[in-house]
Amino acid sequence: MSALILIAEDEPDIAAVLDAYLIREGFRTVRAGDGQTALDLHLALKPDLVLLDVRMPKRTGWEVLSEIRRRGDTPVMMITALDQDIDKLQALRVGADDYVIKPFNAAEVAARAHVILRRSHGAGDSRVLRVGPLEIDLESHLATIRTGTDEQRLNLTLTEFRILAFMARQPMRVFTRGELVDACLSGQDVLERTVDSHLSKLRKKLDEAGAAQLLTGIRGVGYRLESPR
Question: Domain 4-120 classified CATH 3.90.1150.180?
Answer without folding.
Answer: no
